[in-house]
């Protein structure tokens, strides 16, 4: 019970910290609604996770051992800094949580509760919790920091080169509880699922009420079924999925200062979560950067230093220390590469088709074929580019990898699809069903 | 028409969730009888608990941070040995665990002081039995 409370308390503290940064949320242009309180909560939760990763990294780099004291003092300082420099928020909007809850939201809560109950029994725990996320978290808990010598000694079996946000959260929760308690740690996946469903809800704001409720319920049921059937609890695949779904509002409107900052935070989250998240971070930043800003259409405005700083600072603060440590301890896994051949391409594509029919997806993986629809509408086009780039990246790795191609696709692609399906589904609904006209780019 | 398609997808989604939930709960009920291949092991199942009891020998005799070589039955193939080793590493986070292989890396040979054999009998003159349990034996590696 103490361990579960530790997870929930840490998640709440991080969300509270993140929501203190008011400049992360858009007040909205005149006549149009800005970010809702729920969107602030989502972005606040994500920002809290990113700030926690910075804190853990900072302690590591300065040689200070993680403990309840060092992490607590660090979070207190971060909170003070956020209050001092976090910008002023729109006071009137702050308390407006959703008052239009409907049957779709209730279905989502039910799906979340079912997943939570099964996750707590460890029956939905991913094997990757045993093979790397969990063992890393436990070692970091015992070592009081990221145990780089251990990662270097362990070889490829535990993916030593992966970014460490999730094991850091596990270690910090264990430090707060005084012990490493796997069932309680599954609550992190429940928190991520809740944030993901909330992000889908926010992404579907442009739909009619019935369609929006149906979309929320559909996402909750389909993702819940997959998360239970394919055992997703305890893994990090929630985080790239969350980064993509939460990016939809910012990518759907013309770029502005707040949107740049939001995409920067989401890119940082993706990069801190998984190696493939580093690619996703690059795509998110690129999609935001190349678009014409709401204010000013000149190249100077588009590639201004302010924009680059807002977009790139947080991802750079995640990626650079990770890269340095990976190089310092020689952690990069040996990626067996081979040339592109017709036979490997045929094998990979056949395996990809098999994965689309994978039983735990119940056919919802086929939502990926709706991706071209997102190019039809101006507001969903940036999202379409990001999703296409990330999908192409996954497929390219399969095509050039020297591993057993079929086995590689069958064992990883069902999870990688999980990154894309929520955002493709929400984007396709927006592209086909949204009634509101796309906002015209300014300038 | 749009509502019909969405409604159908939603009904299918809810049915899928119910099916996966029912299947997970049924499997959970049968957790105590679950065995089988190491690739389908799950936390809290008998094979994992049996391995955990075997690892108690290491917890009892081997100081933390020492390198222990792990050997399991080669009958089920190298993949099975690999996954058993990874499960053992998860269950034994205070120790470094190396997989018995041929040839052993020189650094592992230099550091290894103990060997745990799970469902495997090893007849190597340099190994001295420290303690054994049914199907499980901890050896000390004698210095030459």
Outline the structure in words.
The complex is a heterodimer of chains A (443) and B (144). With 443 residues, chain A is mainly alpha-helical. Chain A has one domain. In chain A, 67% of the residues lie in helices and 0% in strands. In chain A, α1 packs across α7, α12 runs parallel beside α15 and α16 packs across α18. The longest helix of chain A has 29 residues. The termini of chain A are far apart. The mean pLDDT of chain A is 91. By secondary structure, chain B is an alpha/beta fold. Chain B folds into 2 domains: 32 residues; 100 residues. Chain B contains 4 helices and 5 strands, in the order ααβαβαβββ. Chain B is elongated, with a radius of gyration of 21 Å. Chain B starts with a helix and ends with a strand. The relative contact order of chain B is 0.14. Classes of the chains: A mainly alpha (443), B alpha/beta (144). Chains A and B meet through α4, α5, α6 and α10 of A and α1 and α3 of B.
Question: What's this, in brief?
Answer:
Chain A is mainly α and 443 residues long.
Q: Please, what is the average pLDDT of chain A? A: 91
Report the oligomer. Answer: heterodimer
So how many helices of chain B? 4
| Helical proportion of chain B, percent range | 40-55%
Residue windows where pLDDT falls under 50 for at least 5 positions of chain A? none
Instruction: Tell me the β content of chain B.
Output: 15-25%
How many beta strands in the DSSP annotation of chain B? 5
Largest interface: A-B, 43 and 31 residues
From the alpha carbons, calculate the radius of gyration of chain B and give it in angstroms.
21 Å
């Amino acid at each position: 019970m103490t361990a579960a409370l530790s997870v929930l308390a840490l998640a709440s503290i991080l969300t509270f910290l993140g929501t203190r940064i008011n400049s992360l949320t858009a007040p909205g242009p005149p006549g149009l609604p800005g970010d809702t309180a729920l969107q602030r909560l989502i972005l606040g939760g994500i920002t809290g996770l990113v700030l926690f990763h910075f804190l853990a990294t900072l302690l590591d780099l300065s040689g200070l051992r993680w403990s309840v004291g060092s992490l607590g003092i660090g979070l207190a300082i971060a909170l003070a800094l956020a209050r001092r420099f976090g910008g002023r928020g729109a006071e009137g909007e702050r308390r407006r949580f959703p008052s239009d809850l409907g049957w779709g939201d209730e279905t989502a809560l039910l799906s979340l509760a079912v997943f939570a109950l099964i996750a707590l029994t460890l029956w939905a725990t991913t094997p990757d919790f045993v093979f790397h996320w969990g063992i890393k978290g436990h070692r970091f808990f015992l070592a009081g920091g990221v145990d780089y010598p251990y990662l270097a000694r362990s070889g490829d079996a535990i993916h030593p080169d992966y970014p460490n946000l999730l094991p850091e959260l596990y270690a910090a929760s264990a430090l707060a509880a005084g012990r490493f308690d796997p069932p309680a740690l599954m609550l992190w996946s429940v928190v991520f699922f809740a944030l993901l469903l909330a992000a889908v809800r926010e992404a579907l704001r442009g739909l009619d009420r019935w369609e929006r409720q149906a979309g929320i319920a559909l996402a909750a049921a389909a993702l819940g079924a997959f998360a239970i059937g394919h055992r997703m609890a305890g893994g990090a695949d929630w985080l790239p999925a969350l980064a993509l779904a939460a990016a939809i509002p910012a990518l759907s409107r013309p770029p502005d200062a707040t949107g740049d900052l939001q995409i920067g935070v989401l890119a940082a989250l993706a990069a801190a979560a998984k190696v493939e998240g580093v690619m996703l971070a690059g795509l998110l930043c690129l999609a935001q950067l190349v678009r014409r800003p709401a204010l000013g259409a000149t190249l100077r405005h588009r590639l201004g230093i302010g924009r680059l700083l807002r977009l790139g600072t947080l991802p750079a603060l995640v990626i650079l220390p990770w890269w340095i440590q990976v190089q310092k301890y020689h952690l990069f896994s040996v990626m067996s590469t081979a040339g592109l051949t017709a036979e490997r391409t045929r094998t990979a594509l056949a395996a990809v088709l098999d994965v689309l029919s994978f039983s735990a997806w119940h056919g919802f993986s086929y939502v990926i074929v709706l991706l071209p629809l997102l190019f039809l509408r101006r507001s969903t086009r940036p999202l379409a580019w990001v999703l296409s780039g990330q999908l192409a990246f996954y497929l390219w790795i399969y095509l050039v990898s020297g591993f057993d191609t079929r086995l590689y696709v069958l064992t990883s692609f069902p999870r990688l699809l999980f990154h894309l399906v929520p955002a493709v589904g929400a984007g396709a609904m927006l592209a086909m069903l949204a009634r509101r006209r796309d906002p015209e780019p300014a300038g | 028409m749009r509502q019909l398609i969405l409604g159908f997808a939603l009904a299918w989604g809810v049915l899928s969730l119910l099916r996966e939930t029912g299947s997970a709960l049924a499997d959970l009920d049968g957790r105590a009888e679950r065995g089988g291949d190491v690739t389908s092991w799950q936390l809290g199942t008998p094979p994992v608990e049996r391995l955990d009891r075997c690892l108690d020998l290491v917890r009892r005799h081997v100081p933390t941070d020492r390198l222990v070589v792990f050997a399991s039955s080669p009958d089920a193939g190298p993949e099975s040995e690999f996954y058993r080793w990874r499960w053992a590493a998860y269950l034994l986070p205070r120790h470094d665990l190396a997989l018995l292989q041929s040839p052993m890396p020189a650094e592992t040979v230099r550091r290894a002081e103990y060997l745990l054999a799970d469902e495997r009998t090893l007849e190597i003159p340099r190994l001295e039995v420290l303690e054994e349990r049914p199907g499980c034996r901890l050896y000390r590696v004698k210095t030459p």
